[in-house]
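Entry for thiamine diphosphate complex. Fields follow.
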Amino acid sequence: MIDEDTQRELLRQMIRARVFEEAMAEVYMEGKTPAFDIAAGPVPGEMHLAAGQEPVAAGVCANLRPGDAVTATHRPHHIALAHGMDMKKMTAEIFGKETGLGHGKGGHMHLFDPETHFGCSGIVAEGMPTAVGQALAFKKQGKGNVAVAFFGEGAANQGAFHESLNLAALWKLPVIFVCEDNAWAISVPKDAATAIGNNSDRAAAYGIPGALVSDNDVTEVYETAAVALERARAGEGPSLIEVKTDRLLGHFQGDAQLYRTQEQIEELEQRDAIRRYEQALVESEVLDSAEALEIWNRARAEVEEAIEFARSSPYPAPESALTGVFA
Ligand SMILES: Cc1ncc(C[n+]2csc(CCOP(=O)(O)OP(=O)(O)O)c2C)c(N)n1
């Protein structure tokens, strides 16, 4: 049974991430409408939002300790926030501003934060080998820290997935692989690309535990991650966790989503994991509706402040264009 403070914290983290993604969806379209222009507006480039996938990030990251490392993907905001990234510096990076984590040169798919040991990349499956490397370092340091690699089910068909699981298993590294199965890799449905139904079954090929969380439930994610992390911290090696989650928005903002119907999208919205969890906590009297509303309002204020910080920050100076980058 998860204690009540942790339950409230899980809800709070999911709500912060949802409010952030909804705000980003709006800000991103500024200057891009009526005719969608990917280069226009305050946030140029692609934008991949994770609304619907919050239980995975919140449930796993609530088990992490200072010093634990996380790698994520091109859809990183919910994970970065749950792992403790500063929302202002993250937003400024997304806006390409000097005050951002990478001085505005990485953008939303490349958030790097030495303070929280967080990295992500637009290269699909890139986070797995780097988490394995981090786990090797942790093992040598002997401090009991763990690395967690989040990735999509599309990434599980990359060679890097298999190479990472193999090496991590062979060397018994403290790393957890977390597959966010949102059923789609851009427009490709999982069953058109993956020979088996559950990626968690692939763990058996490497002799490590594979756990399946089948309904985007934050409690189940939290409890499953707790077992895997305890095992890793005890020196017993890696685990693979697969969560069947929901991507409520398009692959990227501006995606016409011709590969799924409006009814399918509405069905996902109706089973929204955050609303379900909020309702469950109110029903079990962990919080009342006024307290729940307060969490939403605080998240809105925090997100507004972060966006204001990003908007009012300067762009990097032109003469710094070649510093901090491979050139
Ligand atoms: C190595 C590589 N191949 C292809 C792409 C193009 N691409 C970007 S996202 C994506 C789909 C990823 O799907 P999944 O791993 O399920 O993550 P999701 O987008 O569902 O979060 C692809 C093929 C890429 N960025 N990197």
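NOTE: The CA atoms of residues 148 and 185 lie 21 Å apart.
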